[in-house]
Amino acid sequence: MAKSVLDVIGISSLSQAKKETLIQMTVLSIACILAFAARLFSVLRFESVIHEFDPYFNYRTTKHLVEHGYYDFHNWFDDRAWYPLGRIIGGTIYPGLMVTASTIFNSLNFLNITINIRNVCVFLAPLFSSFTVIVVYLLTKEVKNAGAGLVAAAMIAIVPGYISRSVAGSYDNEGIAIFCMLLTYFLWIKASKTGSISWSCMCALAYFYMVSSWGGYVFLINLIPIHVFVLMVTGRFSHRIYVAYCITYSLGTILSMQIPFVGFAPVETSE
User: Fold this and answer.
1) Rounded to an integer, what distance in angstroms lies between the CA atom of residue 269 and that of residue 58?
2) For residue 121, which of 57, 37, 35 has the smallest C-alpha distance?
């Protein structure tokens, strides 16, 4: 009797739990590949270039960071931006995007993988869209179940609103900020469920990464207190929520104030 394809590759002999895990990993991998590939049409149709005004400015600052180091980058006065006044780079930008790209560039060069910093900037947003697929899966799985997580991951991979802000060559803050935001939400859910200090600290670090990347961090620091307030009103507040919120909010606020462009805004403004 002829063996089936599943028998040949050995899947039929796996337990039910392992089969489910294999299916989940397969669907998640396809979603990640689809998220990356769907954002490459500008490169395939034209070439690997930075387009739009803000992305090209971000590319210039990233190139300066790679060539001169962070200290010179932080104190750099760019006389070509905001002409004729010029622009103090360190105190007027969110440096998370540039630091992320330069870290990837330096890591690849350390591994003797030669790549131009421009190509790192071009493909950074599609790469992080694949990371976002994984984070959305983890977040939805934590809230609902694995099936809902796979559906959410597949949808975030192809949602037009997200694609428009993360196509190849669109080297802008939203390219990594959406990933940072969803990562912070996921870690907050883990921290609030477990009351763990380690999860709370990781949530604060993710929030710090979000603050360094995009001004939309105010959505995070407003939504988390609202969540805690709703839990208090509905009678679901507990010691775990207290530990998670105190650590995340206090540590996250202190870390966010280390970004020069943010400064004392978290404690001085009504937002």
Assistant:
1) 27
2) 57
Q: The whole model's pTM is what? A: 0.89
Report the C-alpha gap between 269 and 271 in whole angstroms: 5
The Cα 145–Cα 207 span in angstroms is: 25
Amino acid occupying residue 177: A
What is d(CA 113, CA 69) in angstroms, rounded to the nearest whole number? 20
Mind listing the pLDDT tens digit for each residue in 206-226?
Answer: 999 999 998 888 888 889 999
The first and second tokens of residue 102, run together, are 């330069």
Residues ≥6 apart with Cβ < 8 Å to 240:
192, 193, 194, 195
Instruction: Grade residue 54 by pLDDT with cuts at 50, 70 and 90.
Output: confident
Structure tokens at 185: 């939400």
Any idea what DSSP says for residue 93? S
| Alpha-carbon span 172 to 38, nearest angstrom | 18
Please provide the distance, in angstroms rounded to a whole number, between the alpha carbons at the two ends of the chain.
70
Which parts of 1-107 are beta strand (E)? 77-78, 87-88
The radius of gyration computed from the CA coordinates of the chain, to the nearest angstrom, equals: 21
Q: In which residue are the tokens 């421009």 written?
A: 118
Do you know the residue count of the chain? Answer: 271
